[in-house]
Amino acid sequence: LILAPTRELAQQIQKVVLALGDYMNAQCHACIGGTNVREDIRKLEMGVHIVVGTPGRVYDMITRRALRPDHIKIFVLDEADEMLSRGFKDQIYDVFKTLNQTIQVILLSATMPAEVLEVTKRFMREPIRILVKKE
Q: Domain tally for the chain?
């Protein structure tokens, strides 16, 4: 499961995943607002390997039982700093609360503000930080 702050970024991630997935037969679906809910449900019920989406639509799919959290092994928060600054904190927590405690969490962020560090404390056990210097 990959969460992104915008529909556009989620669609961009989906394109990359589909391109990579061609070599591995990996199926990917984007769950984003502004698209047909029934189509999302149909795709998820058919089964996909990777779900990319915005927090609101992903949580909606979980509450409708179309997306089954017990099948999710990796949770990626892309542009975490951006998501928190846009006010997605509660929605991210709602999604996270449905996931298994043993899930692997990957948090990607261009900056490390206090809010992002708080999220690492809340969601991650013994997090490993990989910091890249500015060019």
A: 1
E strands, 32-125, are: 50-53, 74-77, 104-107
| pTM (predicted TM-score) | 0.90
Q: How far apart are the C-alpha atoms of 37 and 57, rounded to whole Å?
A: 9
Is 135 within a domain?
Answer: no
CATH of the domain at 65: 3.40.50.300
**Whether the Cβ atoms of residue 66 and residue 102 lie closer than 8 Å to each other:** no
Q: Write the pLDDT tens digit of every residue in 49-100.
A: 999 999 999 999 999 999 999 999 999 999 988 888 788 888 998 999 999 9
SS3 content of the chain, % helix, strand, coil (to 5): 45, 15, 40
Task: Read off the pLDDT band of 112 (50, 70, 90).
Answer: confident
Angle, alpha carbons 12-16-19 (nearest 5°): 140
